[in-house]
Structure formats: structure tokens, C-alpha cells
């Protein structure tokens, strides 16, 4: 082993990195981050295994490498309200842990395994559990985005009544039971990690103890270029703005399209810009599809380039001057921001949540108001300026690589194995009942083995 580890941590090896999906099947940020950590630990010589949940009907697409395992599940049996998996998933997971001898488990999501699997394993006396939180699914039933429905406004805090108002078909009582289940299931977890302080603050406000939470930025699996190329617009006259990621409503691509329509009314700007949309179309309406098709046909500076290979994303970003992240939900730590920095490109993003934390306005990028196409058009127009651009380039931070991410995780794992992580006092913060006279038992912590 190339690193000297705390004896308590060494006794728990190998580490199990547990992901709700495998990157050979799904390219979401959480599974990419989990696999990046796995690769980083391998590079450091740490015994580690990667365990991914895989839908039964997609098993033929699975590409497992050395020290990788799969838990196969039937999506039809999964409960998405309470996030409960079936007994088979937990049995398979236990079997892999027994086969590999892993005793330190780092869940990068409970999705597809079920919160019940995390709850049961975190109460095993011989295991230690660390959970990396990538979004707000345990707090918010609306795809973990903390966005209200149907209004699509930002939600600043969850409560039984507020969640019941978003889901009147379920009601506040079921929302309360859901919250109770998650707080109880988290009560025996040894440590929580988040890629952003914003997400930590949200979970502390929801009830998780701050002393059991830490922030570690996601790393990048691909090599980070040593030299960042200069502007690549045609003879440096054209300013290129690139969007990368899934083309979905909550990623704000419709806001970008509306901004492009506004930019078309500014001839002096429109003739100097090139907006490129890269990504897969996911969950779009017919109206959105028609809007995308009509605008890209009508506006010579707007192009939809379709899907791309993630292995080549840094090269594609380097062909741009700015990377656009117009999401309408809070986000946590979008990998596209780290990729943009690795490519040496500043980011134009919605000025909220994890995006605002990772992109400092006027320092490493520029902010615009959420969902405001006019403001985005204003920012794009102002960004096409050599002096402003040169200032931003000077302050682009260096993203972590796989080994730096792994080293920081090892430090967190060591903290999780300390004797004081044996929890016997209640430390999930109580939440006042939403309705007068209602008694809700919230977050009573349990000793291991109970």
C-alpha cells in the first residue's frame, strides 16, 4: 500500500464505493463522481471495490471492469415515494460485501438500493457508513430539486405542510412520514460528505448534525490539460458560448433559447457570437422540441450539436470562450463547472445554490438571474469583451484530479472511524410539528445493532 493509513481505517479495507448507477449505462454526475473516486483510490493503491445498482432490463449493456460489482434490481418493484428497495437488492449487496470483506461503505446514493438498505447496513456493528449527498432527494420528493410544483419556484426549506402543498395528492401526513423515515435512516450513518457547502447548509437546516458533515469537491477522471488554449473564435472575432449536458427543462435550456431570441434583436452582438448547445434531449415536450428546431433554423449564431462523448468534453469546451450553466434548480456541484475550469474556461451560470458557490461572479465567471432570459442576454452581450474576459481567465481555479479527491476522502473516512463516531445520543435535530396538536417522533438516534 502506497499510503500510511490509520490502523482503524486499514482494518475496514477494502472500501466499498456504492453507486445508484454504473457509468457504462448512465452518465449522471453522481455516478461519474463515485466512479472517479473509485479510480482515484485505486491509483493510490487503496483496496477498493465499486458496487453499482443496475436495472435488470439493462444488464446486457453493463461493462464491468476489475473490482466492480453489480446489484440487479427490478424498477417496477421500487417505491419512489419512500425510496424503498426490495429484499433482493439488500441480499445481493450483503453478498458482495461478504465476498469482498468490505467494511467501510461509501454510499453515493441510496436510490435503487433503497433507503432501507442504507438504514440496515448503517446499523451493523462491524460496518462504517459514509454517505455522499449529491442532491436533495431525501428532503424533496420533486426529483430532489427543491423546486415547487406546479409553480416551479425555488423552495428554501422543507416542511410537512409545504411538501404537502406541492403534493396535495399525497398530503402533509405522508410527506411527514417520508421525512421521518429519512431522518431515522440517516441517524446511524457515521459521516456525510457533500461537494458543496450550500448543500451542507440545507441538510443542517433540515436536521442533520453539522459535526457529521464535510465538504469535498468532486474530482475529474480525465487528465487536466497543463496549458489552457487561448480564444479560438475565428480570428478571435467570434465569441463562442457552449452549453454541455442533458437538454432538459430543469437545466434551463429554454431560458437560453429565449435569450438567443433576444440577442437576435441586437445586430451588433449577434454578428459576433456563436451559441452551441451540446447534449442529449431528455424529457422534453413537443413544444420545446419545436422551439429548439425553429430557433436553430432561424438564428445563424445558434446551433444544436447533439450528444457528445464525455471523454472529449474538455476539447469541446476549449473550442468555446464561455461555458453556460443556466439551470433553474439549485444544483449542488455540477461537474460541468469543474470541466469548464479544467478546460480553462469561465462559466456563465444562474446565480443560485451550488452554482453561485462554485462560480464567483466577476471572478471566475458571471451570474445572471434565475429564469431571466433578458438578464442572460445582457450578460452574454457584456461577456464578449476582451478586457473582461482576460480578468476572468486569471482567476479560474484548478479542479481536483482523481487522486486529490481520493486523498481528501481518505481523511474523511479516517474521521468516520474514530471511536466518538459510535453514536448513542440523539443527534438528528428535532423538528417541530407542522400542525398544532400533532405529535411526530423525529430522528431518534439508535445505537449500532439496535
Q: How many runs of DSSP E, i.e. beta strands?
A: 15
Residue share in β-strands? 15-25%
| Count of individual helical segments | 16
Strand order, sheet with most strands: 3-2-1-4-5-6-7
Q: What overall form do the CA principal axes indicate?
A: globular
Would you mind describing this structure in some detail?
With 450 residues, the chain is an alpha/beta fold. It has helices at residues 7-10, 29-43, 87-100, 115-122, 160-166, 171-186, 197-206, 253-263, 267-270, 286-298, 313-318, 335-342, 353-358, 373-383, 386-393, 402-416, and strands spanning 15-19, 48-55, 68-73, 104-107, 128-132, 191-194, 213-215, 219-220, 239-244, 273-278, 302-306, 322-325, 347-350, 365-368, 400-401. It has 2 domains: 7-221 and 404-421, Rossmann fold (3-Layer(aba) Sandwich); 234-398, Glycogen Phosphorylase B (Rossmann fold), CATH 3.40.50. A 7-stranded parallel sheet has the order 3-2-1-4-5-6-7, sandwiched between helices. Helix 12 (335-342) links the parallel strand 12 (322-325) and strand 13. Mean pLDDT is 89; it is low at 421-450.
Quick structural overview:
The protein is built from 16 helices and 15 strands. With about 450 residues, it is α/β, with parallel strands linked by helices. About 45% of the residues are buried.
Task: Spell out the blueprint of helices and strands.
Elements: H1 7-10, E1 15-19, H2 29-43, E2 48-55, E3 68-73, H3 87-100, E4 104-107, H4 115-122, E5 128-132, H5 160-166, H6 171-186, E6 191-194, H7 197-206, E7 213-215, E8 219-220, E9 239-244, H8 253-263, H9 267-270, E10 273-278, H10 286-298, E11 302-306, H11 313-318, E12 322-325, H12 335-342, E13 347-350, H13 353-358, E14 365-368, H14 373-383, H15 386-393, E15 400-401, H16 402-416
Parallel strand pairs: 1-2, 1-4, 2-3, 4-5, 5-6, 6-7, 8-15, 9-10, 9-12, 10-11, 12-13, 13-14
Helix pairs in contact: 2-16, 4-6, 5-6, 8-10, 8-14
Amino acid at each position: 500500500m502506497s499510503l500510511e493509513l490509520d490502523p482503524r481505517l486499514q482494518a475496514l479495507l477494502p472500501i466499498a464505493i456504492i453507486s445508484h448507477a454504473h457509468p457504462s449505462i448512465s452518465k449522471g454526475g453522481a455516478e461519474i463522481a463515485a466512479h472517479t473516486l473509485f479510480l482515484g483510490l485505486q491509483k493510490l493503491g487503496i483496496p477498493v471495490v465499486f458496487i453499482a445498482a443496475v436495472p435488470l432490463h439493462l444488464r446486457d449493456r453493463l461493462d464491468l471492469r476489475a473490482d466492480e460489482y453489480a446489484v440487479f434490481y427490478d424498477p417496477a418493484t421500487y417505491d419512489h415515494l419512500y425510496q424503498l428497495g426490495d429484499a433482493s437488492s439488500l441480499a445481493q449487496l450483503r453478498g458482495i460485501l461478504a465476498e469482498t470483506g468490505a467494511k467501510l461503505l461509501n454510499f453515493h446514493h441510496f436510490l435503487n438500493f433503497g433507503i432501507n438498505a442504507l438504514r440496515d447496513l448503517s446499523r451493523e456493528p462491524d460496518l462504517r457508513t459514509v454517505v455522499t449527498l449529491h442532491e436533495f432527494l431525501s428532503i424533496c420528493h420533486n426529483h430532489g430539486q427543491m423546486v415547487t410544483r406546479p409553480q416551479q419556484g425555488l423552495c428554501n426549506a422543507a416542511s410537512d405542510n409545504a411538501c404537502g402543498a406541492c403534493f396535495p395528492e399525497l398530503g402533509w401526513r405522508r410527506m411527514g412520514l417520508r421525512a421521518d423515515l429519512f431522518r431515522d435512516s440517516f441517524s446511524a450513518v457515521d459521516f456525510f460528505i457533500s461537494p458543496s457547502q450550500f448543500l451542507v447548509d440545507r441538510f443542517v437546516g433540515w436536521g442533520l448534525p453539522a459535526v457529521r458533515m464535510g465538504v469535498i469537491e468532486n474530482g475529474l477522471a480525465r487528465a487536466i490539460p497543463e496549458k489552457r488554449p487561448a480564444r479560438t473564435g475565428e480570428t478571435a472575432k467570434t465569441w463562442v458560448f457552449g452549453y454541455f449536458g442533458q437538454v432538459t427543462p430543469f437545466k434551463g435550456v429554454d431560458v437560453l433559447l429565449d435569450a438567443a431570441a433576444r440577442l437576435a434583436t441586437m445586430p451588433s452582438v449577434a454578428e459576433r457570437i456563436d451559441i452551441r448547445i451540446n447534449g442529449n434531449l431528455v424529457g422534453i415536450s413537443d413544444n420545446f422540441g419545436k422551439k429548439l428546431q425553429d430557433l436553430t433554423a432561424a438564428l445563424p449564431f445558434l446551433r444544436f450539436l447533439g450528444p457528445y462523448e464525455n471523454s472529449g468534453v474538455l476539447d469541446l469546451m476549449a473550442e468555446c470562450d464561455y461555458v453556460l450553466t443556466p439551470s433553474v434548480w439549485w444544483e449542488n456541484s455540477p461537474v460541468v463547472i469543474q470541466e469548464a475550469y479544467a478546460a480553462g474556461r469561465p462559466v456563465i451560470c444562474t446565480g443560485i445554490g451550488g452554482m453561485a458557490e462554485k462560480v464567483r461572479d466577476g471572478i471566475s465567471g458571471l451570474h445572471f438571474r434565475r429564469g431571466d432570459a433578458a438578464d442572460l442576454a445582457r450578460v452574454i452581450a457584456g461577456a464578449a469583451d476582451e478586457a473582461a474576459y482576460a480578468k476572468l481567465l486569471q482567476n479560474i481555479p484548478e479542479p481536483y484530479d482523481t487522486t486529490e479527491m481520493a486523498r481528501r476522502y481518505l481523511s474523511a473516512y479516517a474521521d468516520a472511524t474514530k471511536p466518538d463516531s459510535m453514536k448513542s445520543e440523539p443527534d438528528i435535530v428535532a423538528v417541530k410539528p407542522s400542525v398544532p396538536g400533532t405529535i411526530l417522533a423525529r430522528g431518534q438516534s439508535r445505537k449500532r445493532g439496535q
